[in-house]
Write a structure and sequence with these properties.
By secondary structure, the chain is of the alpha/beta class. The protein has a single domain (22-217), classed as SPOUT methyltransferase, trefoil knot domain (Alpha/beta knot), CATH 3.40.1280. 35% of the residues lie in helices and 18% in strands. The chain has helices at residues 3-19, 37-50, 68-71, 75-80, 96-105, 149-153, 172-191; strands spanning 24-32, 52-58, 89-93, 109-113, 122-124, 136-140, 155-160. Strand 1 (24-32), helix 2 and strand 2 (52-58) form a beta-alpha-beta unit. Helix 2 packs parallel to helix 7.
């Protein structure tokens, strides 16, 4: 390994350690049956940039390999994610039921996104309280069909992005970025002061705030 390669590798590891306090523990983004592998890469990139801990993909067409390490080398995903897949844990499921079962077994509460009223409880994105869930999974549906009825039936809340134009839908990459920004912002504010393992446990020393993050870019 050359000196340049070694320096780059060390710098990447140092940055990974520096941003660790800003990662949102127990926050998972779920993509249900995406039709375009490039969109998977875009969502992974958004999730990584916004500090989402993991990405789950319901992929019955098996566009992705089952093993995460193989996925990191799959060119369409790695290219569109700007290599974010190398730094983000991604797990694929053969169907929605398996993904739901896995999440519920781990104690996750699910929230889905849709431009239409679909859930038992519905709210605009900015009205939702995403701090109250210890473990949270945010679902995004297929580019054409949207979120499935099965997924909706297992979700605590269905949120929509307020839109005021003639077009009433956004592509998967754009909608995931908007939704995950709001959710991760709220959860970072909470975990800065309180631990997620014990909801009422206040930290002796608050984690760095959002405004201090620019210090790690020097």
């Amino acid at each position: 390994m050359s000196k340049t390669e070694k320096k780059t590798s060390v710098s990447a590891r140092e940055r990974a350690d520096a941003i660790k306090p800003f990662r949102c523990k127990n926050l998972v983004a779920v993509i249900e049956e995406p039709s375009d592998v490039k969109n998977i890469g875009t969502v992974i990139r958004n999730a990584n940039a916004l500090g989402v801990e993991k990405v789950y993909v319901v992929d019955s067409r098996k566009m992705l390999p089952s093993n995460w390490h193989d996925m990191r080398d799959k060119n369409p995903v790695s290219k569109t994610s700007a290599s974010a897949v190398k730094w983000t844990f991604v797990k694929r499921f053969d169907n929605t039921h398996d993904c739901i079962t896995h999440l519920e077994k781990k104690g996750f509460i699910s929230v889905c996104t849709s431009p239409h009223v679909k859930g038992k409880t519905n709210a605009f994105l900015h009205e939702g309280d995403y701090q109250k869930y210890t473990k949270l999974a945010v679902w995004f549906g297929n580019e054409t069909r949207g979120i499935s009825d099965i997924a909706v039936s297992h979700c605590e809340l269905c949120v929509s992005i307020p839109m005021f134009g003639m077009i009433e839908s956004l592509n998967l990459g754009t909608s995931s970025g908007i939704v995950l920004y709001e959710v991760s912002k709220q959860r970072r504010q909470y975990q800065s002061k309180y631990t997620r393992s014990r909801r009422k446990g206040k930290r002796a020393e608050p984690l760095p705030t959002e405004m201090q993050r620019d210090l790690i870019n020097d």
